[in-house]
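Cont'd.
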Amino acid sequence: MIDMHQDIRDAVTRLCADFPGAYWRKLDAERAYPSEFVDALTAQGYLAALIPEEYGGIGLGLSAGAAILEEIHRSGGNAGACHAQMYTMGTLLRHGSDAQKARYLPGIASGDLRLQAFGVTEPGSGTNTPAIKTFARREGDRYIVNGQKIWTSRAEYSDLMILLARTTPADQVAKRTDGLSVFILDMKAAREAGMRISPIRTMMNHATCEVFFDDVEIPVENLIGEEGRGFRYIMSGMNAERILIAAECIGDAKWLIDKSSAYAKEREVFGRPIGQNQGIAFPIAQAYARMRAAELMVHDAVRRYEAGENPGAEANMAKMLAAEASWEAAEAAVQTHGGFGFAEEYDIERKFRETRLYQVAPISTNLILSYIAEHVLGMPRSY
Amino acid sequence: MKVLVPVKRVIDYNVKVRVKTDGSGVDLANVKMSMNPFDEIAVEEAIRLKEAGTVSEIVAVSIGVKQAQETLRTALAMGADRAILIVAADDVHTDIEPLAVAKLLKAVIDAEDPGLVIAGKQAIDNDMNATGQMLAALTGWAQATFASELKVEGEHALVTREVDGGLQTIKVKMPAIVTVDLRLNEPRYASLPNIMKAKKKPLEEKTPADYGVDVTPRLEVLKTSEPPARAAGVKVGSVDELITKLKDEAGVL
């Protein structure tokens, strides 16, 4: 059994009550970043939850991070603007040198430094990460970076980026996952020296970008771990990322189910509440059952993660099942609300758009199924 | 100076209240419970007095079911120094009456010797608005109710009260009982570091028997019912029709 952190959940709910649907709708209309919300979360210490106490954080386990993110979504909000800080920080924490940790973690814990950009995906490689083209060439005590990243979320609102780049060409390494390195990039310095950020308009307000590197210099001391081992460092953070995103999906599903069941009880058509019709009630009940099942998988993944196991299968399955559950709940919510499901002031259409993302990002359902087929069931690799 | 802040665990103010089918009271099974919002304001005021250097220690007290320790942890996370839980009921539906609460608080005062009690003016569950006043009667202390401003000056508290005609400022000699109104302050959030610290702050558990107080109810609830549903309004076509209706149907003109 994992710690459910009810006290933390209550406090997060309380904070989120000050950021109601109207707040998120206004941001959506303006395509704006939720600075006030992120500032409030930071000031109350939530984004420092997983940073060790010795670096100014709270030193809590992944279960606390999952509880915080779930409750933000359960309150109708969206943690997408800042959740990356929780798991991106893990790359630095696990593989960074003592000097790097001492230099960056206290600022991240206090909120002075935002590390929430993760530069991995490229237009030509997609999920085929080893095929990235961005190259960091070593010259003396610097690396010179050239290339392009895409779907780099929050790049405009981040002081630091964890950047993956090739440091040895793919045709000169034994394994295609070798020769990749991870850097911690000072975004402000890089913007003044050849890095360009270009926002991408999407169907939801998610602040995602293309990032272009044109001879951007990174000091050698910003290399994380050993040169050439970056792929492993990035992969080691994926379990935490998937579990935390799964928790957000559970929060979305709970919010959508709450809204749907409340509306189905109140809305009267033909002289009785619409929830009395099984055609309305059953999809909501079905979504609830699926959400509960997915929640159990999330808890199992969290428990294994906190016990020090490698819960690759459970983290992936939790993300897939939770994303499917939240989507099913979103479908039921739109159908239950009828025309009002499309009206912005009900927030249903916003959540419908937002929660659809999680079957695509941070990893698509097909790749999760491939993982299970290959690594759990031992079937031949398909790609 | 030590301050005593009584806090009550009540149904969360965001929850839509439902009456039990047998009419015996409000259904509290699996319902979200929180600290009474007026008590949050009281805790906040005590913390501000401590931050200003007027108060040295804040003791939060709750009387009710064992789960009220969560409410006390919230008070500790906000900034109270320690807590006393008096477990006076097993069933979440049991409400301890104001007189019993006041007697228990009197006993806590005798043991703790605070210079000031800051309490919510009422709890949002039963809206009794009686405990603070009863406590003042039992202790013989001054009372200042419905506070919208509180200043401590030496031996006295200056309290601005929200009364029907406007604002009234009174000066009471301490020790005193102050009950607080909505506009006194805006309570802070409990931050994550403080939630973690609160887990280590002392929380003492007691029973009414420890203080020799009998909490047997004196009041009998005959019936609890939902407020009547609002009936639909009527649309009028013209000002003349409105005036006719106000005269003939409503009888207010």
